[in-house]
C-alpha cells in the first residue's frame, strides 16, 4: 500500500513461493515478550491442507471462527482450511457465549476450534442445550490446557467429544492432534490428557537440556521438526538461534511421549514451581481443580514463600450460582495430590485474565501476587 501511494510500481517477478513469508504472527506473550514468527506460504498451506483432508468433514463444510483470525489457529485451522475446502466461514465480532450459541443454532456449523476456556463458558451459559451442538462433526481445542474433566462433562452434557490438539505460533498452529475415530488417552500416573499424535511428515522429540532424546515416558522439552515449522523470528536473530537450533523448534514446553506415540504436555518450562526443592507443574494442580463441581476456571502459579522458597497458589473463578470457599478448595486438592503439590493459597476472582485469544495469563496473576 505504501509503495502504491508513493506512485511506485510493484516489484517485478514477485510471485510468492513456498519459502516466502506470508505473514508475521506474534506469539501470545503469556510467558514473556511477544515475538514475530515468520510463517511462510508453505507453512500455512501445509497445515491448512492437513485440516482439509484430516477432519472427515462433508463437502463445502461450514466453519465457525471461534478462534480469532488474527491468531494463528484461526488463520490456519478456520480461515485457511475453509478456503482450501471451498466452505463457509461464520464470523462473530467478539466471543460472547450467548451470541456464539445463537450463531450455532442459525448457521449449523460442522467444525470449530477454540481454547478450553471458551468451551467452559459455553457449557456454563444458562441457555445452552444439546441441540446447539448437534450439527458438529468435529470440535477441536488448542491454545490452552484441556482438562480431562471438561472433555467428559462436555460429552455427557452436549454430545460432542472435544478433540485435543497441540501447536504453537512457531509451528503455524497444529503439529499434533487427535485423529477422528480415536480418543486421546489419559496418563494414569499424572492424569494428563494426551494432546494427540504428530502429524504427517512431522517429527516430535522429547529432549533433555543437552538436546538428547529421552526414553518413552520420561519428561523433557518438546522439540518439533516439520513442514509447518517457521524459519525463525522477524528481526530477532538471537532468539531464532536459541529457539530453532538446526531448524528444529524448541518449544519451551515440558512433555513426554508414550510408546504408542501419543504426546502429553506437562506445562511450560518457565512455569515450573520449586517448592522446598520439589517440582510442581501447575497443570497437574489445575486438572484436579477442574474436577470440582464449583470451578469454572483455574490457574496455578508459584508465589514467594519465606520457608519453602516458593509455594503453590491457585486462582479460581466459579461456575454460575456455585458456592465454595478457598479453604474448601485447598482441602479438596489436598485429598487428591501429594502434600507438596496442593495449593496453600487460593483466591477466588470473578474472572481470570486472558489474552484476546482466550489463554489464561499466568504472568498477570504472578504480577498481581507481587503487587499485593
Can you walk me through this structure?
The protein has two domains: about 15-265, Rossmann fold (3-Layer(aba) Sandwich), CATH 3.40.50; about 275-370, ANL, C-terminal domain (GMP Synthetase, Chain A, domain 3). It is about 25% helix and about 25% strand. The protein is built from ten helices and 18 strands. It has helices spanning about 1-5, 40-55, 70-85, 95-105, 115-125, 150-160, 235-245, 280-290, 325-335, 360-370; strands at about 20-25, 35-40, 60-65, 90, 110-115, 140, 160-170, 175, 195-200, 205, 220-225, 250-255, 265-270, 275, 280, 295-305, 310-320, 345-350. Strands 4-3-5-6-7-8-9 form a seven-stranded mixed sheet, sandwiched between helices. The chain has a four-stranded antiparallel sheet with strand order 10-11-12-13. Strand 12 (about 250-255) and strand 13 (about 265-270) form a beta hairpin. The chain starts with a helix and ends with a helix. About 45% of the residues are buried.
